[in-house]
């Protein structure tokens, strides 16, 4: 089953490089495929490349759990799971085959299915990590019942490499849906949000929904009878499923429009609000992509007025691309960083200048 994925345990080299950094007091810039180099601040440090640390450590499809090394490509993992009729539900982007599993967890980026299936963090069962004392530690396990250290594994999701070097990840997987159908309906954004709210109340099998240029795209997934009934109720035009990969990988024309790209995360059912630029509504409106040359402070004020936050997805636009943290939260992050990476060698300054 793992033949399509190169098998190489490069732990000794990774440990040696971390221990050398600790001894000499220099930072490390962790990288896999560098597919998310645009996200976050520039890191000054010696490059620590995980791409040679690959392979499936354990996979039994009947257990719905897979354990892989961090340098394994997300595209290779997806192909392996698909060959067994399974998938990783958060639908993380593979960025044209460059993204690695370690980077997938560290960034916690997820695709169109995330609001209905859960986040990357929700599917992390356990990890192996080289921590800030140069030790190779194991947290969590391969089954949900094994919760020892499980919280730290979940903390690593979205940490952008600032808490340690992920070397191995155990992930919960699920069977592929039995039937999928993609539709497009001609409606304005306000009507689209109203329809999506009603469909959620009615528990329709929606697993993807985005609106752009007066067109609502909807994906239905589940059993044949359930999908067929929902398809009849919704109407609209049936479209190719490729649109979801194009959205996930940011290949839609919207993402090449020119202005800086921002991601606004807002509460579910947040009403429409005028934003300074072109907008694509994703995650049924909970994620709002904004192409805008407006000043970062103005965009963040708009996000805050909606009860959410904004992240800049274009490198070099904002020196603090992630949402600035309140002082009490920054202190918490600094204490956590000091405990797990006391010498501050892992991706220093990637998320915030003083972290």
What does this structure look like?
Residues 1-176 form the FAD-binding PCMH-type domain. One of its GO terms (molecular function) is FAD binding. This is Glycolate oxidase FAD binding subunit. With 355 residues, the chain is α+β, with helices and mostly antiparallel strands. It has 3 domains: 11-175, Uridine Diphospho-n-acetylenolpyruvylglucosamine Reductase, domain 3 (2-Layer Sandwich), CATH 3.30.465; 177-249, 2-Layer Sandwich (Alpha-Beta Plaits), CATH 3.30.70; 255-321. 27% of the residues lie in helices and 24% in strands. It is built from 10 helices and 17 strands. It has helices spanning 11-24, 74-83, 101-107, 114-117, 150-156, 189-201, 224-234, 242-248, 296-305, 327-340; strands at residues 28-31, 46-49, 56-60, 65-69, 86-87, 124-130, 136-140, 165-172, 174-175, 179-186, 206-212, 215-222, 237-238, 261-265, 278-282, 287-291, 309-312. The strands form 5 sheets. It has a 5-stranded antiparallel β-sheet. It has a 4-stranded antiparallel β-sheet with strand order 11-12-10-13. Strands 15-16-14-17 form a 4-stranded antiparallel β-sheet, covered by helices on one side. The protein is globular. The two termini are 41 Å apart.
């Amino acid at each position: 089953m793992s033949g399509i994925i190169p098998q190489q345990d490069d732990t000794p080299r990774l440990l040696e490089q971390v221990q050398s950094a600790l001894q000499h007091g220099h930072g490390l810039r962790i990288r896999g495929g560098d597919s998310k180099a645009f996200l976050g601040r520039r890191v000054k440090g010696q490059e620590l490349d995980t791409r040679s640390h690959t392979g499936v450590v354990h996979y039994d499809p009947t257990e719905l759990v897979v354990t892989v090394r961090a340098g394994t490509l997300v595209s290779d993992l997806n192909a392996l799971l698909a060959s067994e009729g399974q998938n990783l539900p958060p639908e993380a982007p593979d960025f044209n085959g460059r993204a690695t599993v370690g980077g997938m967890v560290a960034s916690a980026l997820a695709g169109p299915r995330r609001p209905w299936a859960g986040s990357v963090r929700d599917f992390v069962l356990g990890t192996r990590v080289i921590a800030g004392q140069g030790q190779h530690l194991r947290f969590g396990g391969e089954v949900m019942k094994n919760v020892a250290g499980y919280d730290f594994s979940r903390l690593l999701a979205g940490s952008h490499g600032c808490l340690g070097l992920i070397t191995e990840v155990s992930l919960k997987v699920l069977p592929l849906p039995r039937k999928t159908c993609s539709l497009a309906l001609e409606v304005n954004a306000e009507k689209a949000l109203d329809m999506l709210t009603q469909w959620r109340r009615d528990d329709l099998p929606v697993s993807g929904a985005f609106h752009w240029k007066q067109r609502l795209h909807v994906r239905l997934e589940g059993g044949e009878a359930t999908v067929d009934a929902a398809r009849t109720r919704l109407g609209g035009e049936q479209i190719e499923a490729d649109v979801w990969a194009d959205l996930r990988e940011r290949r839609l024309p919207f993402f090449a429009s020119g202005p800086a790209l921002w991601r606004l995360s807002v509460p579910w059912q947040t009403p429409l609000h005028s934003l300074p630029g072109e907008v694509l509504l994703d995650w049924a409106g909970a994620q709002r992509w904004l192409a805008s040359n407006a000043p970062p402070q103005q965009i963040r004020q708009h996000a805050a007025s909606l009860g959410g936050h904004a992240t800049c997805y274009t490198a070099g636009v904002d020196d603090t691309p992630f949402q600035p943290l309140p002082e009490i939260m920054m202190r918490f992050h600094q204490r956590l960083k000091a405990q797990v990476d006391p010498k501050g060698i892992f991706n220093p300054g990637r998320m915030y200048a003083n972290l």
